Amino acid sequence: MEETKIKRKAWYDKNTIKREFSEGDLVLVLRMNRPNKLSVQWKGPGGIEKKISETNYVVSFNNNTYSNQVFHVNMLKPYYKRAEFINMINSKAKEDSNELEENFPGIGSNPNVFDFDEVTEHSQLKKPTEYSTNRETKRNTMPLF
């Protein structure tokens, strides 16, 4: 029995990542009872109030749902804030009319518009004649299979 316990612990520990949080860290909590499978899987962010044991933490939320409940470390993951977007404004007045305009890629362009002529020109696509020879070869060798 003890030998089996050691083997199972070794198997479990092989792929686990030790997670540890400190007080004040923002975390997301795995929701166990979702109304449907398309609803949000993670709830949060919530703040770590205190560490109860090596694997249990008290998490508090601002909107008082799951207020100050104890969660296992396997149900928590760290919360990372998104970077704030900053719009660039060029307020420098143009003094010289011959001055070249700066071209920033991506600003004002639509990322969903592609130049397919350029893509096909540089790709390794087969020519239509190669497709026809492949079809003929298939037809000729079909009775063999």
Automatic annotation (TrEMBL):
Stretches for region Disordered: 121-145
Composition-biased stretches (Basic and acidic residues): 121-139
Superkingdom to which the source organism belongs: Eukaryota
Name of this chain's protein: Retrovirus-related Pol polyprotein from transposon 297
Organism annotation: Trichonephila inaurata madagascariensis
Gene: pol_1799
